[in-house]
Amino acid sequence: MMKEPDISVVIPLFNEEESLPELCSWISRVMKEHGFTYEVILVDDGSSDRSWEVVEELFSGNSNIRGIRFNRNYGKSAALNTGFKATRGRVVITMDADLQDSPDEIPALYSLIEEEGYDLISGWKKKRYDPISKTIPSRFFNWVTRKISDIHLHDFNCGLKAYSREVVKNINIYGEMHRYIPVIAKWRGFDRIGEQVVAHRPRKYGSTKFGLERFIFGFLDLLSITFVSKFKQRPMHFFGSLGTISFLLGLIITVWIIGNKLYHIAVEHQEPVREVTDQPLFFLALVAVVVGVQLFLAGFLAEMMTMNTAKKRDYLVIDRLGLKK
């Protein structure tokens, strides 16, 4: 049985053939200088260039290199999630493949996890080399995420992060949820989350793979994480509460309308009295009752599904290097 390494470095990549040799050489140099045992897991997210050929070359020349290849582009979250499952190290480091993250930061990140007992350390690129079209929306979403999650990080989406092994083995990410890993980790019970200022380097090769649409998708994913994390195991608490409120509101309004008519007939002997069905408020009350019943039933069905099913997400891996298939 192979001895577990000190560090596993997970690197998702998409069309990064130029940067990979330099990045892996840099990581190797840092690891040797500090005496770490390590593995580098390169996850090729369906690249259309020579990235996988480069990974194969690196694997043949370095026993610490591992490779995972997807049949198509699934996204960064899928690549990270699959890489996490393959890690063996006590501390897991993630970084981007474009050389904008510096491997020189690894020893400090490792120390914070291994020696100071943090569950997760997120990098903070205090000085950035990104265009203003990227930095301003990023600051806005970081602010929104801080308010919703109550996690005081400046840069949730920084690719350079460090995790304890327990964290990566107990979280699942998909869609565009990689930028909210600290939020997912906290709601899984890993609340020792810290931050470390890290260097941000100008892009040396290629161009960015992300457009402005990622902020829209990211915001929707934040809402999804918030809902699922709080109510995944107890959907009846959400749907049932809304349904009960809606039902009671409709019922109270209906009783008030009917009671008001009976009062005018029996006490004030008022004739004629407006019909209940002639009042728009009655139909609003009826809608509230019907919606309330539907929400309650939705909560009941969701509760049954939660108890009897577990949704599993898999991605088609078509090749591996140095890892069991």
Q: What is shown here, in short?
A:
This protein has 10 helices and 8 strands. The protein has 325 residues and is α/β, with parallel strands linked by helices.
- What is the CATH superfamily label of the largest domain? Spore Coat Polysaccharide Biosynthesis Protein SpsA, Chain A
Overall pLDDT metric: 84
Q: In CATH's first tier, which class of the largest domain applies?
A: Alpha Beta
Helix coverage percent: 40-55%
Percent in strands: 5-15%
Could you give the order of the helices and strands? EHEHEHEHEHEHHEHHHE
Give me the count of strands.
8
Termini separation comes to 16 Å
Largest sheet: 8 strands, mixed
CATH architecture of the largest domain: Alpha-Beta Complex
Low-confidence runs of at least 5 consecutive residues: none
CATH topology category name of the largest domain: Spore Coat Polysaccharide Biosynthesis Protein SpsA, Chain A
Class by alpha and beta content: alpha/beta
Give, in spatial order, the strands making up the sheet with the most strands.
Answer: 7-5-6-4-1-2-3-8
Count of distinct structural domains? 2
Question: If helices are DSSP runs of H or I spanning 4 or more residues, what is the number of helices?
Answer: 10
Q: What is the radius of gyration computed over CA atoms, rounded to a whole number of angstroms?
A: 27 Å
Q: Any idea what the shape is?
A: elongated
What does the oligomeric state look like here? single chain
